Amino acid sequence: MTQRIESFRLPNGLLVVFEPMRDVQSAALSLLVPAGGVRDAAGRCGTAAILGEMFPRGADGLSSRELCAALDNLGLQRSFSVGSAHITFSAATTADRLADALPLISRMITRPHLTDEDFEPARDLIAQGLMSLEDEPRQRLGKVLRQHSYPAPWGNSSEGELTDLETITPDDVRRHFQAFVTPCDAILGIAGNLDFASLKDSIQSVFSEWRGPAVPPVTAGSCPVSPYHLPHDSAQTHLGLAWETVTYSDERYYEAWAAVSLLSGGMSSRLFTEVREKRGLCYAISASLSTLKDQARVMAYAGTTSERAQETLEVTVAEVLRLHEGITEDELQRCKARAKSSLIMQQESTSSRASSLARDMYLLGRVVTLDEIHHRIDSLNVPQVKNFIQEYAPRSMVLVTIGPQPLNADCVNRLA
Amino acid sequence: MKFQQCQLSNGLTLIAETNPAVHSVAAGFFVRTGSRDETTLISGVSHFLEHMAFKGDERFSADDINRIFDEIGAKYNASTSEEVTMYYAAVLPEYLERALELLSALMQPSLRQEDFDMEKNVILEEISMYEDQPSFTCYDQIMATHFAGHPLGQSILGSNESITALSSQQMRDYHRQQYHTGNIILAVAGNCDFDLLVTLAEKHCSRIPRGIAERTRPDFQPRPAVSLITREGSLQQNLMQMGDAPKGNDPLRFAAELLSVVVGDDSGSRLFWELVDPGYAESCDLGFSEYDGAGAWMSFLCCSPEDVAANLERCRRVFEDVSTHGITVEELEQARNKVASRIVLRGERPMGRLSLLGGNWLYRQEYRTIADDLKVIRGVTMQDIHELLQRFPIRMITTAGVGPLSSLDLPADAGSDAG
User: Fold this and answer.
1) Between the N and C ends of chain B, which has fewer C-beta atoms within 10 Å?
2) Residue A235: its chain B contacts at CB < 8 A?
3) Domain that residue B303 falls in
4) Which residues, in sequence order, are bridge partners of residue B61?
5) Domain for residue A190, yes or no?
6) What is the pLDDT of residue B21?
7) Averaged confidence pLDDT in chain B
């Protein structure tokens, strides 16, 4: 798999990274602007979320409906998502139409109207989304687990907080836009069947006038204490565990990846086999790596009816700890096989490549080629992964539960 | 891309769309069986059986199945709907044989008692998991309400009671009755050689017994009804409504798909501008659901309970306006562009092609290329939309809800005589 990766920076700071893909008909892009939830002012959690909702509501003289019709007629599938570090705009269409979409995208991102009239409906939608989240314990668990795992504001909810929404004003949103929707720290990843030279020309012409300041560093505070239980009249108890691991930029990242993959990488992995297949304790169980730029966690989830929740917690924690008793060559091989196959299949998806390009640039400042990942994964061996598992065995775990009853957290507290 | 098909010596139909330009290949067994093919007594057996398939046969244990699929780096899973149970794996081309060997083992599982007893717990957990997701609960409820008395109204997961009472013998009987060449096709999409594929399929699929498809498609007239599941502690109200739409084999289904995009796509549609853009509802959309011998408009609304009455009235006005006055040429063109782009993007990956390939064959014994689909979408005219709305105006007949409300004031024509 020989990949060509092109990148350049506009004078205003916007970093562009492109991967040509010849065997596809589509093109996709992922634009990261450093305006995510961590930038919400204290007591104004949800400002970024409202801004994300307001971008499509008219820009640069185009009404919301005109903008929408123009993008729809180009077949542009698109979405805004608000994360902790970034507001991300993702889009895909057939490759021949992306160049026509770029000017519209640029106008929407850099010159949104952000009027007072559009503020109320946007805030109402964010509020309704938060209320729905409260009705869905599994979704809510993700939010609460994050809050208890990362120090504020990294753990803050990028969806917003109901109590804060009322205090946010249209001016807050406009200030957020002015300060953080800026080309200085923005990254645009593009992948697809496109010609680099003409793409570069289009990008330069549509984004060159975008201006904005550099963003200041984020000061981190503290996390709320755990174990934490949120009472909810639900059919299942939803439980989340988190512990520290290494970041994407760390030398040992691929070992960390392997450790999580052994736990939860496929249907033959430890958690699925021990908790679900052998004991029938739950339907959904998983663990995955969550990585910010300078800190990372493994986050695990299980949903189980209340009478079996205690056992599920204990078996899950025991399985995580049992990893450092030893791992086999076969199970590591399976993790490698799955990863290699995913890497190859990634080459069939412009959307997944575009987001990987932008993410790599943000987290590492360079793109890791599929060849390099392949090589790093291939060279992993049992002693090395075992060593990582022992050195990075969880010294403490965050436990969050949502359901009718709290659980006995001895198995987690014992670690500390 | 090239389409080829053949009948294996045991009568199993094999269809394939080969494409040397992609990196992977996806294979799937599509079984014409689902909750509509069950009796009340065995409600949920199709889905439970789909889980049990992964417990293996006399050659492969449950551990073997999971382990080997992971060893070859497969992306694999299965799904059960009202009408189809599908088992699939996407792999790199060199692992196609191993994947076919395992997938074919799933078609003839041993259904061991101890596995059955253990997996029953997992199914019960899955039922509880969906209970905690109001939109899923609402979907089950609207299907049960709209298709009351028709097999499509039967729950895919079954209930705690039906699953608890189900025996492994009942499952074996159901398996014998449904899993045969009359109900199963093998579909393959992606990078593979057809001749080799035929050889591999002959080698691994010969144990699937011959059989003839049988499914009842009773005539059906939905009756106005409202059914609410009240959850006092909830903050938001979920509501779904259904009305009559073209059946799965009606040529008007393409017009129906486009009309649903104009009226109820999740952005840029009539419902979006009337309800979501102004912030009245968190989400509101309209879809067209096609079934074997039936079809339905299905709308979804999620909003604050105090806004439900006004929002339902807004929906009704949108539906009535479209049904009476039709849509504009610009709206149709916009929907064509959206749908065309979706078809192309989805078609780029073997997994995306596989479900269309298998679905088209199972429902209609037809093969359609991406170009065919684009052509038919481009060819839908204002006259087609007009004819569609004459025959199937968007008129909701049944309503179901999950949330704080215990009663509804429905606008006219939406189940109002059944409160």
Assistant:
1) C
2) 128-129, 131-132
3) 225-403
4) none
5) yes
6) 86
7) 95
User: Maximum CA pair distance of chain A?
Assistant: 64
DSSP H or E stretch at residue B316: helix B308-325
Helices of type H across B193-235: 194-205
Q: Does B94 touch chain A (CB under 8 A)?
A: no
A35 and A160 part of one domain: yes
Does residue A18 lie in a domain region? yes
CATH number reported for the structural domain that contains residue A390 in this entry: 3.30.830.10
Amino acid code (one letter) for B179: Y
Shared domain check, A104 and A32:
yes
Question: Which among A122, A132, A350 has CB closest to B279?
Answer: A122
Asked if B191 and B276 sit in the same domain, the reply is no
Contact B125 A280 (CB under 8 A): yes
For every residue of B335-399, DSSP letters joined together read HHHHHHHHHHHHHTSHHHHHHHHHHHHHHHS----HHHHHHHHHH--HHHHHHHHHHS-----EE
* Beta-ladder partners of A402: A230, A238
Looking only at the bridges linking them, the beta strands covering B85-91 and B2-7 are unpaired
Give yes or no for B306 touching A (CB within 8 A).
no
pLDDT-derived band at B411 (thresholds 50, 70, 90) equals: low
Mean pLDDT along residues B7-23: 95
Q: Which chain B residue's Cα is nearest to A22?
A: B21
Burial B73-98 (b: 16+ CB within 10 A, else e): bbbbebebebbbbbbbbbbbbebbbb
**Do the bridges between strand B225-230 and strand B398-403 make them parallel or antiparallel, or are there none, so unpaired?**
parallel
- Residues B171 and B294 both lie in one domain: no
Domain count, chain B: 2
For position B419, what pLDDT does the model report?
32
3 state SS of A87 = strand
- A379 burial (CB, 10 Å; 0-12 / 13-18 / 19+) is exposed
The answer to whether residues B248 and B107 belong to one domain is no
- List of chain A residues with pLDDT < 70: 1-2
For residue A191, is it within any domain?
Answer: yes
Residues A189 and A122 in one domain: yes
- Write out the residue range of the structural domain in which residue A276 sits: 228-413
The partner residues of B86 in beta bridges, in order of sequence, read: B30, B79
**Whether residue B52 is found in the same domain as residue B142:** yes
Where do the H-state alpha helices sit in A150-293?
162-165, 170-180, 196-207, 253-264, 270-271
pLDDT digits (tens, 9 = 90+) for A173-212: 999 999 999 999 999 999 999 999 999 999 999 999 999 9
Same domain, B165 and B274: no
Q: What value does the mean pLDDT take over residues B238-245?
A: 98
For chain B, give the percent of residues with pLDDT over 90: 94
B281 and B149 in one domain?
no
Interface predicted TM-score (ipTM)? 0.94
Structure tokens at A143: 């939010």
Distance between CA atoms of B260 and B242, rounded to whole angstroms?
A: 13
d(CA A45, CA A154): 12
What distance in Å separates the CA atoms of residue B228 and residue B232, rounded to the nearest whole number?
12
Residue A278, domain member (yes or no): yes
Q: Both A385 and A239 in a single domain?
A: yes
Q: For residue A382, what are its two tokens? A: 């049992």
CB-CB contact of B39 with B46 (8 Å): no
The 10s digit of each residue's pLDDT in B185-235 is 999 999 999 999 999 999 999 999 999 988 989 988 999 999 999 999 999
Q: What is the pTM of this model?
A: 0.95
Whether residue B412 has pLDDT greater than 80: no
Q: Which residue of B has its CA nearest to A340?
A: B73
Instruction: Provide the H-helix boundaries in B27-185.
Output: 45-53, 62-71, 96-107, 113-131, 134-146, 160-165, 168-178
The CATH number linked to B21 is 3.30.830.10
**pLDDT per position as a tens digit, B280-300:** 999 999 999 999 999 999 999
Whether residue B285 is contained in a domain is answered as: yes
CB contact under 8 A, B74 and A345: no
